[in-house]
Each structure stands twice: as structure tokens, then as C-alpha cells.
From TrEMBL:
It comes from the Bacteria. Residues 1-27 form the signal peptide. Residues 205-216 have a biased composition (Polar residues). Gene3D superfamilies: Cytochrome c-like domain (1.10.760.10). Residues 200-235 are annotated as: Disordered. Residues 217-235 have a biased composition (Acidic residues). Pfam families: Cytochrome_CBB3. GO terms for molecular function: electron transfer activity; heme binding; metal ion binding. This is Cytochrome c. InterPro entries: Cyt_c-like_dom, Cyt_c-like_dom_sf. It comes from Marixanthomonas ophiurae. Residues 101-186 form the Cytochrome c domain.
Amino acid sequence: MKKTINMKKSLNITIALVAAFSLFSCFNDKKPNYQFMPNMYEPVGYETYGEYDVFENEQEAKLPAEGSIPRGWTPYEYDNTTEGLNLAKAESKNPLEITEDNISEGEALYTIYCAVCHGDKGDGQGILAEREKFLGIPSYADPGREITMGGIYHVEMYGLNAMGSYASQTNEKERWQIAMHVMDLKAALNGEPSLLETVGAKAVDSSNTETSQVEQNETDTEGEDVSEASENETN
Ligand code: HEC
């Protein structure tokens, strides 16, 4: 009697072991296994690079819609033409504040990207000019080229003939910082005051106009040229 119980018990254990083993042997860690609730794993939407019949070429990945603008990128409205350059020279304005930081940042970038051709002083005597690898590199002081902040930014965007574009190596802020340094080089070549000096002079100027404004306002309550004073400040 006792023996049969033992027999039954060991049979049960064997069955349990065989069952456990055969279930476990199905487990393959190289492959995904049973999914009891597939919606937990498989997205209901389309996979980014998936293949689906409903799409053209069966590709989920699509080109951005025409006119899309990447995040953080500002459209540049001037064309890559001579008219575009002239327009940029005339009206495109530097949006950054003129600060020592911006200018020294611009100088460092200028040394990396531009000095090989244009020279550290901007006189067109960079090492590649000296070795005659590139010809026709102008001095920024060349009176025949009306070099303005907007014009510099424009040629950084598109390049100009032998000069390549720097739009992919630099971002918008960096291009304006470089443009500031180029304006300083031009000023130094022409013996004119630097940007910071001009800004400093303007600040003194506008504080002068402000005091005279106050004096004026005391007698003339209209205060018509307040707008003029604020214009001076922003310049
Ligand atoms: C490979 C040499 C080379 C490099 C590097 C280079 N330039 Fe030039 N750059 C030129 C040449 C050549 C011209 C004259 C193009 C022309 O008028 O045909 C020029 C012209 C210019 C002009 C005058 C544009 C005008 O209005 O006439 C500016 C401003 C200028 N470069 C700025 C820069 C700045 C800023 C950098 C760096 C981001 C730079 N360049 C890098 C070769 C170079």
C-alpha cells in the first residue's frame, strides 16, 4: 500500500519534470517568444521605417512636405544672386548685440574658417593667397566692394565664386559673430573705430540726447522726438 503511493508520487513528479522541461526547451533567447498580449509590443500605428502596402513604394518614411522648416533653422530670404547680395548688403541687419563676447567668439571662428584665405588682418593675404592657391581674394578695405554686415552674412551663407559656403559649418549666430569681426578688421584696415568703440560712442551720445530730452520736456510737454532717442539706443 505504501509502495503504490510512493510509485504514484514519483510518477507525478516525473510528469511534472517532463512537462517543465519540454516547455522550457521551447524557450529560445535568440528569438522573440510568445506574446500573450501583442498590443503591448507591436505598435498600432505604423513603424517609422516600416514597409506597408498603403504607402507609395511601401515605405512609411516620407520626405518632409514642401516648404517644411527644420526646427531651430531660420529661413534666409535673400537669393543666391548678385541682386540678392546687393539687397542683403543694403538691408540685412545683424540681430545680435555688439558685445565683447560675440566679437571674440567671431574672431576665433574667423581664424578657423576664413583667415587661411583672407588673412588674420583681413587684407587678403592669408596663407593660401601667399601660396597662390586662390587668386582674387580681396582685402576687406577694398573700396570697390561695399562690405557691410549683411553682405558678409550673405557670402557666408552662399559663398561667392571661388569662396565656398559656410552655411553647413556654422550656425546663424556664429555667422553674425564672424561678420562682426570682419567689420572690425575692415575698420582697422581703414583706421576707423571698432564696433565696440562705435557702440560705446553711441551709448554716450544717446545718454546726452536723453538729458537734453529731459531739459526739452520740461519746457515742451509734447516730447515729440522721444522715438528718435530710442532709435539711437537700439542702433
Ligand atoms: C578659399 C579661400 C576663402 C575662404 C576660406 C574664405 N573666403 Fe571670402 N572670399 C574669397 C574670394 C576668392 C573672394 C572674392 C570672391 C569674388 O568676388 O569673386 C571672397 C570674398 C569675400 C567677401 C567679399 C564679398 C563682397 O561683398 O564682395 C567677404 C565679406 C568674405 N569673402 C568673407 C569671408 C568670410 C567671413 C569667410 C569665413 C567664414 C571667408 N570669406 C572665407 C575666398 C575665401
